[in-house]
């Protein structure tokens, strides 16, 4: 085998190992990102729901009537929180898809 062939083969092996290590690091980041996302989604639902309950209790104490403001505001807070979580997840999914498309375009150029 020629020295050039040996160098080329060695270069390919190093490149494959480097890509494997980078992929492993990216997967580890995605795991932590996914776990963090559960927290963000949980808080984006829980916080508006709790604020709705507090607002409802305050309104029930201030206003007399047949309407339970606590239940009404609880439901509105829950809906707002679910919409917020959906919006957040949808936006993150679109950003991730755009990143993957950019990576594909870069790898096609190489």
How many strands, which pairing sense, and closed or not: the largest β-sheet?
Answer: none
Mean pLDDT: 82
Q: What is the N-to-C order of secondary-structure elements (H for helix, E for strand)?
A: HH
Percent helix: over 70%
Low-confidence stretches: none
| Portion in beta strands | under 5%
Which structural class fits the helix and strand makeup? mainly alpha
- The best one-word shape is rod-shaped
Intertermini distance: 27 Å
Quickly count the domains.
Answer: 1
The total of helices stands at 2
**Count of individual beta strands:** 0
Global Rg = 26 Å
Protein model, in words:
This protein has two helices and no strands. The protein is mostly helical. The protein has one domain. The radius of gyration is 26 Å and the shape is rod-shaped.
Layout: helices, strands, pairs:
Blueprint: H1 3-62, H2 69-109
Identify the notable features of this structure and list them briefly.
0% strand, 110 residues, single chain, 2 helices, mainly alpha, rod-shaped
